[in-house]
Structures are given as C-alpha cells and as structure tokens.
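Worked example
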Amino acid sequence: MLEVCWNDPAGKKQRAMGLLEDISASGACLQLETSVPLGVEIRWECPKQDFTGRVQYCVYREIGYFVGVEFDSTSRWSKKAYKPQHLLDLQRLVENAKK
C-alpha cells in the first residue's frame, strides 16, 4: 500500500491509497480506487526513494483504476534503491523452473 498525491485541474491537492502493480526504470502502474486526470504530476514515497511522474493513462477495470505513470528524470527506479516486497522476479522464476 502507498499514498499518492497530485493536484487536480483546479489546483486542489488530492490523495489516494493504492497498490503498486508494476514498476520499471521508466515508470510504474498503480491501482487506485479513484481516477486521476491524464497529464498531471503524481507523487509517492517508498522506503529509500521518492517517485514523481506524469499520468499517461488511467483506465477502469473490474477492481479499480489502473494508472500508468512515466517517471521524471529524478525518479528512475532501480532494484538496488528500492525493491517492493511483492515484486515478481522473472529471472529467478525461470531459473527455479529449470531446477
């Protein structure tokens, strides 16, 4: 769980709790219970790293809104800086399947 913040088009600060669904060096996908306008800057904090980026998509699926965020140049993610506990390591999964 993480808390995300953004300013709506009227300039009012908005907050929502969400789940980090996916993350890469250039962006992330968040699952939220509320929609977020396209193009707004969105921010959240994680242990050892803060993230800032722009909303590229926001689509509703059966269980909530999936919000795609493209990181700005100061928010590049790396496993060394922050590794979510639930992150699926595909390389390790393949290696374990070969055993």
User: Anything to note?
Assistant: Residues 2-98 form a domain with the Thrombin, subunit H fold (CATH 2.40.10). The beta strands are 2-7, 13-23, 27-32, 41-46, 49-61, 64-71. The chain has one domain: 2-98. The longest strand covers residues 49-61.
